[in-house]
Design a protein that fits this description.
With about 400 residues, the chain is α/β, with parallel strands linked by helices. The protein is built from 14 helices and 17 strands. It folds into two domains: about 200 residues, 3-Layer(aba) Sandwich (Rossmann fold); about 160 residues, Nucleotidyltransferase, domain 5, CATH 3.30.420. The strands form three sheets. The protein has an eight-stranded mixed beta sheet with strand order 3-4-5-2-6-7-1-8. Strands 9-15-12-11-10-13-14 form a seven-stranded mixed beta sheet. Helix 2 packs across helix 3.
């Protein structure tokens, strides 16, 4: 059993962690620390001998999205808290994404909510000991209001342990002010609802480089900063691409290409893109800050087929040479006057399907907007900050433009 455990929390989440209302709704901007906090909060509560009989269900729209988000957050939290005693306190099954606390038998399981089969599976969930008491829905804006109703119905019946209570926790970055979550939880006053708002400014553990990136966005993209950084409700007006769908798909394509936008202080982004029947499929992404080229090449090893054409940012030919020496078929993207607008036009005319694991591209697209002029009117120039994965996607499709005979002025 653990003794003298010290856990670092952001003080802004104290009331949230103590809340026992049925609906705990946490929205916030990027880097606010809300998901890290929720993960630590659940690990500590599930480890407590006083909470025997508690079990947690963790939900994202697409089941496999949990692996690199909620499952990673919860296992990391358990490792931080338990340190060398981790294996004595937690049984963690990587392949099936399950966690069991050896102290009291409390469990954590993960699921998706993407189809009828998964919805029916939720209705039959049971645990060897205790009941389903807590549900954590990450990226809650991905789910429908009816999805929440189905989950809410699972929290019922008498609890033998008086310390326990039923609760649904929703965490998300805000999107449109017309979203049902705002109407249901933020526009009403209810004794059953607790809402919380946080930003990177509340996070005592965020790095200084992140602060600088947010200040850059504040300068060049005030509306994007308001939604992405300050976590305020946004509007759909001014978004550049809305014709994308996040979903799973098979990998049988007519052709494939890799796009790469170089970065260090801003992200170095690599995306794997497939084409089928004229539509665009983004299959994978590698998105890293503060990594040199040799480190990125190591991270990419085995993840991207070296025989596939890799179209890179042409501004750094030395980096392209390093990728070529590593065996990749890397070439510079062709740029010229009007190339960005031509790439945007190409993407607008197609359906874009994005694998759920491409979290960073999805977040960038949800915030990518046209610049506004001094009168607040939209211009034809996109905001060019926090668009690293988008730039990689544009490079990936740039070869198709040349194949179609579209050229640009140098």
């Amino acid at each position: 059993m653990l003794e003298n455990v010290t856990v670092r929390f952001n003080k802004c989440f104290k009331a949230s962690n103590e809340c026992k209302k049925r609906y705990r709704v946490l929205m916030g901007g990027a880097g606010s620390g809300k998901s890290v906090n929720v993960a630590q909060d659940f690990i500590i509560k599930l480890m407590s001998p006083n909470n025997h009989g508690a079990n947690l269900l963790v939900v994202r729209k697409v089941e496999q999205s949990n692996r690199n988000s909620t499952f990673a957050e919860l296992t990391s939290a358990a490792a931080r808290i338990c340190k060398k005693q981790l294996s004595n306190v937690w049984e963690i099954k990587e392949s099936s994404m399950e966690m069991r606390c050896r102290i009291n038998g409390n469990r954590i399981i993960f699921c998706g909510f993407n189809d009828l089969r998964q919805r029916e599976k939720i209705k039959s969930i049971n645990f060897p000991a205790g009941k389903l008491t807590w549900i954590w829905i990450e990226e809650a804006t991905e789910l429908s209001e009816n999805d929440i109703e189905i989950l809410d119905d699972r929290l019922r019946g008498d609890l033998e342990n008086d310390n326990l209570y039923y609760q649904i926790t929703l965490t998300f970055n805000p999107v449109s002010s017309r979203h049902w979550i705002k109407k249901r939880y933020f526009d009403v006053v209810s004794d059953d609802v607790y809402t919380h708002h946080s930003t990177y400014l509340d996070n005592d553990f965020i790095d200084k480089a992140f602060h600088r990136r947010m200040e850059m966005r504040k300068k060049f993209d005030p509306e994007g900063y308001r939604v992405y950084a300050l976590g305020e409700w946004g509007a759909q007006e001014g978004l550049i691409l809305t014709n994308f769908t996040v979903c799973n798909f098979d990998n049988n394509f007519d052709s494939m290409v890799v796009g790469q936008d170089f970065g260090f202080n801003h992200a170095n982004a690599i995306v794997l893109v497939g084409f089928r029947d004229g539509q665009v499929y983004v299959c994978d992404e590698l998105y890293q800050y503060a990594k040199d080229t040799s480190e990125l090449i190591s991270l990419a090893e085995g993840r991207f087929d070296k025989n596939i054409l890799m179209i890179c940012d042409s501004a750094e030919p030395d980096r392209i040479k390093m990728w070529r020496r590593a065996g990749y078929n890397a070439i510079p993207a062709y740029k010229g006057a009007g190339s960005v607008m031509a790439q945007i036009d190409y993407l607008k005319q197609r359906k874009i399907f994005i694998a759920p694991m491409c979290d960073n591209l999805i977040k960038e697209l949800q915030a990518w907007r046209w610049r506004t002029d001094n009168n607040g009117e939209l211009t034809d120039t996109p905001v060019d900050v926090f668009d690293d994965a988008i730039a990689a996607l544009r490079y990936a499709i740039s070869g198709n433009l040349r194949d179609e005979g579209i050229s640009f002025l140098k």
